[in-house]
Design brief:
globular, Proton glutamate symport protein, 20 helices, mainly alpha, binds aspartic acid, about 500 residues
């Protein structure tokens, strides 16, 4: 008895120490990035990148103005009007670049740039390394232990109902806030720039995106839920395909009696081994998180540039953050009322995963830790967590859905357009689809936002307006995405009354 209590205290102390180390690393990373980020950015060739981006912005504006010449001459003239300001900025940056190349780069800043990048990459890669085996083993074990197909159906139904309901609430919170605060009125889009992957989405419709989620992109048969080659899909880290395959495979194993049990036991042990490897990766978390935070801030030009972006889009940033906080509170209420859990304790036990989500900006890369925190720290059974979490990491994105809605209405406001009630309903629907369609990787939501914009007839160039700050908001919404999955696992567990294996 005493030994058990001692073990518990030891574990809690270890957990607290780990968490403290992560928070300290995050703060140190942020301080380095904010204060020294600009020097790191200069040493890492930031000016060259900025020149290229500004040149592309000029080309994009000119091209778009040309295309609109007949249809909308006023807009064409407005876009052309932006060009001189961009060109004057371009001249400034070129001059700075010339001056810099004479002075040479700071060795220290270059080392800081390389070192933080190395730490961040290594951590991210080690996490991603765990994802494929973890999804496969945890899904097969989860499904196998659910047993009866009817029971799998019940859990599946509860999970999908929870995902849809919370996503819809998120979108509605976003729409109400953005309509009330009106952050888009008067927003300046002089330097708005659209990336290639956003452009490539222009032809896709909402239904097309949903079909692509199932079948994959027409020219890439291994990118959807049902790929033509599971190994190729795994190699592309197509988590949804792995989930689907493992789900059916796990279900099939349960019908084989003793022969199936041998294989299930194999995957059970493999799952436990991978979880042990995840623990090892966690030893490296503080270093990795330090690197990710510092490098990501530096990559965007350091504190000065960040402050500039935030002030320019302050109201929009505040709206998204407020929405995410409200959605977070809603999830806590759901956790308390439906999951019958103690919210504060649950959050504390989820902190490692949430902070990793905040720094990686990727639900998929964080999945190993999400599973670890949900099963081992919050005590949700593996059979539910193994099913809900991998699925949630790819399709359940509360934060992304909220952000898609806010961003679309923001863009409409910036263009002086008033959206009708019908258009808002279309946004509700398409933002939900766009969140489902977004992969659990950094800034995926920005790309799928094209379907929301095209559905209500907004130009995709509007995305350029929010591009500069997206890396930051992406980190924040990823936290909500992950927390939504964790709460979902707790809620589904409470409502599925199944005999444990
Ligand atoms: N980065 C988000 C995630 O991985 C997706 C997005 O909103 O872009 O959950």
């Amino acid at each position: 008895m005493k030994r058990k209590a001692n073990g518990k205290v030891k574990r809690a102390t270890g957990e607290l120490a780990g968490l403290t180390a992560i928070i300290v690393a995050m703060v140190l990373g942020a301080v380095l990035g904010l204060l020294y980020g600009r020097s790191m950015w200069l040493a890492g060739g930031g000016l060259k990148e900025e020149i290229a981006r500004l040149e592309m912005t000029v080309a994009q504006k000119t091209e778009r103005a040309k295309a609109l010449e007949e249809k909308d001459p006023a807009e064409a003239a407005r876009l052309r009007g932006h060009v001189p300001e961009i060109e004057s900025r371009l001249a400034e940056v070129r001059q700075l670049q010339e001056q810099r190349s004479k002075e040479g780069v700071s060795k220290l800043a270059l080392v800081a740039w390389e070192f933080t990048k190395f730490c961040g990459d290594l951590f991210l890669q080690s996490l991603r390394l765990m994802v494929v085996p973890l999804v496969v083993t945890s899904m097969i074990c989860g499904i196998a232990s659910l047993g009866d197909v009817r029971h799998i159906g019940r859990v599946g139904f509860l999970t999908v109902a929870y995902f849809l309901a919370t996503t819809l609430v998120a979108v509605v919170i976003g729409i109400v806030l953005v309509t009330a605060i009106r952050p888009g009125v008067g927003a300046d889009d002089t330097f708005a720039f659209v990336t290639k992957n956003v452009q490539s989405q222009e032809e896709t419709t909402a239904i097309g995106t949903l079909l692509n989620v199932v079948r994959g992109a027409p020219d890439d048969p291994n990118s959807g839920m049902i790929p033509s080659n599971i190994l190729a899909a795994g190699a592309e880290m197509n988590v949804l395909a792995l989930i689907f395959f493992s789900l059916v495979f796990g279900g099939a194993l349960t019908t084989l009696g003793d022969r199936g049990k041998v294989v299930i036991d194999f995957f059970d042990a493999a799952n436990a081994a991978i979880m042990k490897m995840v623990h090892l990766v966690m030893w490296f978390a503080p270093m990795g998180i330090f690197g990710l935070v510092a490098f990501n801030i530096a990559k965007k030009g350091g504190g000065e540039a960040f402050a500039g972006e935030v002030t320019k889009l302050g109201k929009y940033v505040a709206t998204v953050i407020l929405g995410l906080v409200l959605q977070g509170v809603f999830l806590l209420v759901v956790l308390k009322l439906l999951g019958k859990r103690r919210p504060l304790e649950f959050v504390m036990h989820s902190a490692e995963a949430l902070l990793t989500g905040l720094t990686t900006g990727s639900s998929s890369a964080t999945l190993p830790l999400t599973i670890e925190c949900t099963e081992e720290k919050n005590g949700v059974s593996g059979r539910i967590a193994g099913f809900v979490l991998p699925l949630g990491a790819t399709v359940n994105m509360n934060g992304t859905a909220l952000y898609e809605a806010v961003a679309a209405v923001f863009i409409a406001q910036s263009l002086g357009m008033t959206l009708t009630f019908g258009a808002l309903l279309v946004i509700v629907l398409t933002a939900t689809l766009a969140a489902i369609g977004a992969a659990g990787i950094p800034e995926a939501g920005l790309v799928t936002m094209v379907i929301v914009l095209t559905a209500v007839g907004l130009p995709i160039t509007g995305i350029g307006l929010i591009l500069a700050i997206d890396w930051f908001l992406d980190r924040l919404r990823t936290v909500n995405n992950i927390f939504g999955d964790m709460v979902g696992a707790a809620v589904v567990e409470r409502y599925e009354a199944a005999p444990a294996r």
